[in-house]
Amino acid sequence: MTYAFFGGCKISHDVPHYETSVRSVLQFFDIPLTDAPFTCCGYPMRHQDSFASIFSSARNMALAGQKGVDIMTLCQCCFGQLMFAAHRLKTDEVLRNAVNSRLAVEGLTWDGDIRIRHLLSVLHEDIGMEKISKMITNPLTGVRLAAHYGCHALRPGHIVRMDNPLAPTIFEDLIRAIGAEPVDWGRRLECCGHPLWEKNNGVSLYLMKAKIQSAVLSGAHAICTACNYCQIQFETVRQKETNDMEGGKPIPAILYIQMLAHGLGMAQNPLEKGNRRNKHG
User: Could you tell me which residues are beta bridge partners of residue 116?
Assistant: First the structure.
């Protein structure tokens, strides 16, 4: 199965190690990626111009359709937006006709045949836990990780359909596959606060601090993410403002793919200081 790689707008600039790690790991498991001239998924426009938002998603899906490949994205906002747009286009004939009329100018069409996959699903379903476990040469024995799902991977459940939105297990399965231990923590399904940053920074920081505190109390060594926006929220300037917690050293946030790359012997341990942005992530 070849996937069209959908990086979104943030990854190449803010978390390039996310993409580097994913490309290396998927190549290791013989899952080819192809590139397409994708643009923004349309998520930032959802509440300003609904048609422009849906059209942006539809155009990206049509570009993948030209190549005859499904889309794989690393960004949960992109994943949720593309799935939402596909749902709207399938259920609203008037909208679908209007979008396809605009796409026809470029010789494109949205026909609904393209699947949208998130990285977690590709790892869990296409590769599988058994194969991942067998290939681990550096098991993360004794490492306790707090799986942070993020909002758009799970909700709305009837649209994204990646896992049970109230009792998901896919992320914990992937953590066990690399030899680590997923912790049970009270705020694992709550928002990281990123959507509110620069709109209400106080609430954004409160949500993030509450999540970090919950992870600390669970005994986790790190918060494990699979979304660039969530990673940015935990790991950049916002976390620097949590100097009132754990002696001014809040636990780190680590992208799951970095942990997997280490487990496969492709990268140094990202939990060790200075290794969080190494060659393979």
Answer: 71
Q: What is the pLDDT of residues 188-224, one digit of tens each?
A: 999 999 888 888 988 998 999 899 999 999 999 999 9
Q: Measured on CA atoms in the order 264, 268, 272, 274, is the torsion positive or negative?
A: negative
Using CA atoms, how far apart are residues 56 and 11, in angstroms rounded to an integer?
18
State if pTM tops 0.70.
yes
Q: Which domains are assigned to the chain?
A: 3-118 (1.20.1050.140), 126-263 (3.40.50.11810)
Alpha helices (runs of H) in the chain, residue ranges in sequence order: 11-14, 16-28, 50-67, 76-91, 93-103, 119-121, 129-135, 157-160, 170-177, 201-217, 228-235, 237-240, 256-263
Task: Report the chain's C-alpha Rg in angstroms.
Answer: 19
Q: What is the mean pLDDT of the chain?
A: 92
CB 266 within 8 A of CB 29: no
- What average pLDDT score do residues 40-45 get? 95
Cis peptide before 156 (omega within 30 of 0): yes
Residues 74, 11 contacting (CB under 8 angstroms): yes
Using one digit for the tens of pLDDT, what is the confidence trace for 106-147? 999 999 999 999 999 999 999 999 999 999 999 999 999 999
Q: 144-147 and 70-73: which strand pairing?
A: unpaired
In angstroms, the CA 225 to CA 275 distance is 16
Tell how many helices (H) and how many strands (E) occur in the chain.
13, 8
**What does the buried/exposed string (b/e) look like for 228-262 if buried means 16 or more CB atoms within 10 Å of the residue's CB?**
bbbbbbbbeebbeebeeeeeeebbbbbbbbbbbbb
